[in-house]
Amino acid sequence: MDKIENIYKRYILLYVKGLGVGAANSVPGVSGGTIALITGILEELLDSFRLISPKNIKLFFTGKFKTFWDTVNGNFLLSVGLGIVTGLILLASIVVKMLNTYPVAIWSFFFGLIVISTISTLKTIRKFTIPVFIVFVAGAAIALLITIMPIAQTPDSLLLVFICGAVAICAMILPGISGAYILLLMGKY
Predict the structure, then answer these.
(1) Containing domain of residue 20, as a range?
(2) How many CB atoms are closer than 10 A to CB 113?
């Protein structure tokens, strides 16, 4: 019984961590990838995504569903994925309303979250070297350039929405890059 209880606890904890990633992904300027890194699920998440390969997808289409599920770490992906979707759904509409109603306070809050995310990410660096410092400065410069970019006015074509979504999803899993902010810059948030 303890083993089953521990399994349920693990998947509930993964759901909660996914909820945090999804919530972060709905906030412009906060990286869901950074939250995944801080909560310790990023590496397993990336490894699980990597396992969704043509060879493994073939298992699914040949009717070997359980083998496919086990191979791609399906329980982990389902738990984290449900958490991410829940976090996005719960917070995205609230964030948009708050941005329209209290823009200065909300952007200030986002800035504080970015600072905390930066500090938390810096704590994961084991050894500060000159190359690490150079990459940090370059990343900070790029981040500054992104923040001063004007918000684009883009057409609502389905292809453009798809492309913006694909770019944002890629950004959402990378630590330090806010997919929601990328969507905001592309005029699709």
Answers:
(1) 2-150
(2) 18
Q: Tell me if 9 is assigned to some domain.
A: yes
Structure tokens at 145: 């350039």
**Is residue 120 within 8 Å of 34, Cβ to Cβ?**
yes
* CB burial of residue 7 (10 Å; 0-12, 13-18, 19+): exposed
What whole-number distance in Å separates Cα of residue 105 and Cα of residue 174?
26
The size of the chain, in residues, is 189
Phi, psi of 108 (to 5 degrees): -65, -45
> Cα–Cα distance between 54 and 186 in angstroms, integer?
31
Summarize pLDDT for 138-174 with one digit per residue, the tens: 877 877 776 677 766 777 788 888 888 888 888 877 7
What is the residue-averaged pLDDT of the chain? 84
Cβ-based burial of 11 (10 A; exposed 0-12, middle 13-18, buried ≥19): middle
Number of compact structural domains in the chain: 1
- Is this prediction's pTM over 0.85? no
